[in-house]
Hints:
The chain is of the alpha/beta class. The chain contains 6 helices and 14 strands. A 6-stranded mixed β-sheet has the order 10-11-9-12-13-14, sandwiched between helices. A 5-stranded mixed β-sheet has the order 3-1-8-5-6, with no helix packed on it. The radius of gyration is 29 Å and the shape is rod-shaped.
Amino acid sequence: MFVDEVEIVVQGGRGGDGIVSFRREKYVPKGGPDGGDGGDGGSVILVADPSLDNLAPLTQRKHWKAGDGRRGGSGECHGANGEDLVLSVPVGTVVRDAERNFVIKDLVKPGDSVVVARGGKGGKGNAAFKSPTNRAPRIATPGQEGEVRRLMLELKVIADVGLVGKPNAGKSTLLSRLTRARPKIAPYPFTTRHPHLGRVIVDWNRSFVIADIPGLIEGAHAGAGLGHEFLRHIQRAGILVHLVEPEPADGTHPVQNYQVIRQELELFDPQLVKRPELVVVTKADLPGADEVRKDLEEAIGRPVLLISAVTGQGLDELVRQIVRILEAQGRFAASITD
């Protein structure tokens, strides 16, 4: 099960109570106060883990609580601190305060972490209150409650290249041809139900990550189809590769389809249409594919690539164009992890 959004409640541990205690030792007639402080409660910490690809593990529970601190002891013994609760989330998780609707932290790099609920402070034992004027204090303070927060966790896939287009435009087929990813491929719309990632190896020290995003339709920005759920996953992509099917099964015009998807991207996030974009006509083996490519070039005023993920036509040139843009963006340093 792929989960890219989850709401949870996190709570820091309660601080341990301080205690009232006095020394009771033989031959020590005036034993003073020796009540120890309570331990601090544990905190809840989120850590970005590159081995995870979605938020499904956090759906097991709604409420996550760190360990409580232990109460103090006699002999001025400090209570043990509560154990921190460390929750692993995928790289690219946006941590948001669900009640006040602000971003706490965007975990964009492996190992990024954030304390989302701090544990309560331990209470003071009576030894902390002794003074020249109060040699036998009989007071202690309780531990504080831990912080409680309701969080909205939202995963935005981190990829160098995002594949966009209408359903059945050939995104999954292209991803499977360029990488080792094996998304579901079938001759009907909405085959892709969640983003798939794959790594394209350019040479011995260069590679980039490409994401296959579920097909978009008109109205996607407002929730139509699957688009609204997954448009967020292309917000981090440095390049958009817009795939256009030359003979759509629904009889629509390829140029119009391109314009519709561009409009949906702009309505969802105006910054998306400012990203570098490669426009690609797929299924070059179809008779009218090259004519569609020419029509698109005339409509948008810039070159359009023609490829076939089945025969391999144009794939090398597509990769070269992607590499050229990534080099200009300086993104390769972040991609070389394998």
